[in-house]
Amino acid sequence: MKENEKYIIATLGPMGSSSYYVANKLQKVKEIILFDTFEEASDALLDNKCDKLLVPHAYPNINNFYMNPKLRVIKTFIEKTPVYGIATRLSNKNDDISKIVTHTAPVPLLDYYNVHYNGQLVLANSTSEAAKLVANKTYDYCITNEEALNRYNLRNYACENNALTVP
């Protein structure tokens, strides 16, 4: 790839994911292709369907990409993510949090929210997917980011007002 050439980037979707948010901030991006998992995005890179792969360090299985001899790290950078919080539908009046749907990466944030949580975690492929599942009434609560909260017309239930800085 030439230095000034625009590239196609693969990352985690759907639209509203933190990865999509960060990918949109990058320069020289011609197209962003969204996948259900980072592993599918990696396969697209290996199949020459895109030029670059974007995976945040918060992803618990990032070592799979570092240790893959077919991939090589070309750049690391630090970027603020959208604000994360626990979200629910605008119409939800139930304060009993028995299940929270989320991606694995922001699970440690539960310790920082001032909520009584007495249930189970349900894992989704992304926090944006988790927000979609709440919007579709599959679950009542999710950990998601501000982008997905707005995209799926949810409301904040509990939030730390700090954006995370993730490499």
Describe this entry's structure for a reader.
Helix content is 22%, strand content 34%. With 167 residues, it is an alpha/beta fold. The chain has two domains: 7-79, D-Maltodextrin-Binding Protein, domain 2 (3-Layer(aba) Sandwich); 83-161, Periplasmic binding protein-like II (D-Maltodextrin-Binding Protein, domain 2). The chain has a five-stranded mixed sheet. Helix 1 links the parallel strand 1 (7-12) and strand 2.
Relevant CATH superfamily of the largest domain: Periplasmic binding protein-like II
CATH class of the largest domain: Alpha Beta
Taking the alpha carbons of the first and last residues, their distance comes to: 24 Å
Number of helices: 5
Portion in strands: 25-35%
CATH architecture of the largest domain: 3-Layer(aba) Sandwich
Radius of gyration: 17 Å
Portion of residues within helices: 10-25%
Characterize the biggest β-sheet: 5 strands, mixed
